[in-house]
Amino acid sequence: MSRLNRIITFLRHYSAARYFRRWTDREAFERWQERRIVRHLDIVRKDSSFYRNHWKDLPTSRWREFPLIDKKTMMAHFDQLNTVGVRKEEAFAIALKAETTRDFAPTLSGITIGLSSGTSGNRGLFLVSPQEQHAWAGTMLAKLLPGSLMQRERVAFFLRADSNLYQSVQGRRLQFAFFDLLDPLEQHLSRLQRYGPTLLVAPPSMLRMLADNIAAGMLCLPDMPRKVISVAEVLDPLDRQHIEAAFGQPVHQVYQCTEGFLASTCRYGTLHLNEDLVAIQKEYVDVKAGKFVPIVTDFSRSAQPIVRYRLDDLLTEAPACRCGSVFTAIQSIEGRCDDCFYLQDSLDPERFVPVFPDFIARTIIAASTEVTAYKAVQHASSRIEVRLSVADAAWPQAVQAVHAALVSLFERIGCRLPEIQFPPCEAEEATASYRKLRRVERRFTIHDTIISSNRDSASAGFSEEIPSSFPHTTL
């Protein structure tokens, strides 16, 4: 791909995302989206033998009926699914070598190869062609830069792994610095102070550590970044509070994974699905509460087509945003579905009641203003462990308040009360920078067959009783 073509691709996608893709009518947008999807899937059917066989004789116009895939399916059929002739063994070898050497520049026949972090138990590969790489760069910058391309920006990107995908945004006016999350925090602080970023992108666990060091006077930036963006992990309300207080501005978010650039925040800080790039079908877990699992069809990528891909994340819808966008607004990304707690029904111990992660999180946060960090883990159906970061003097009152709040929550939804343990919170558990932070986590296996189907919406009934925002988190 020539330099001129790279520039043209970049500018075309930047301009489209920044200036031209504007709809005031959802129906008009959906007609545009449908045309794009059908045209894209016709090409995928032709170029991917896996999808051609997977869809059988179903016409492309009925793409919503195509069989679902997930990470396991994608990796099992990787060689036949991708359209650029990359073999899984070769791709894994290059990606794993890059992880070991920390040299992320090598490609395979010009194709950028990335490796997911593997928090769901198995690691996934993603492929990006040169054209897709520059299209992504243009779209990403259009949605994330605080100003235009004419302004000079210094971007600090904290990630587990670097990639050609990120380096493609480098330019004369745009400086890009990769901060490896495996490096020591002290090294980050001194380098960040010298660099003076105007745009800071990092997981919330790292943003929280940087915020704590700003508050302690250990990090003194010449000027605060003009925009702070949280990526890669769920942004917990408690972490948001501390980060926003330290940086003196709202924290924006990007929802991106192996399966695509799925969502980003508007100027008001509302997270919107990037439905000009991906179509999101909603598999509702709780219709009343607006909670759903996204099924992704990415109509902007061809090297590794993502069609009717079921994620393991749990999202909650939000009301329409005042920005006027027709793109679906998201109230929260709650993390993985398998981090939903399951407790025994108080009347029938053979039945289990789901408790969504955000209800656990909001209950803990609302219980005590003394809690500065927490980690809730369900080890068994009858045992939950909650680690709280609290000043020593306030520890007994905070533990009592959180325990009472959780008991009240479980009683309201008709659960048999589990044992709730409160061991001390270790500092590294509150802000772990080398792995994805999960504030709410389930560590025992439960068979779907014993989950009560008629209690799927049990958690919805109390959603209005738990405040969606808290006085002590208001800036």
From TrEMBL:
SUPFAM superfamilies: Acetyl-CoA synthetase-like (SSF56801)
Protein name stated in the entry: F390 synthetase-related protein
Organism: Paenibacillus mendelii
PANTHER family named in the record: CAPSULAR POLYSACCHARIDE BIOSYNTHESIS PROTEIN
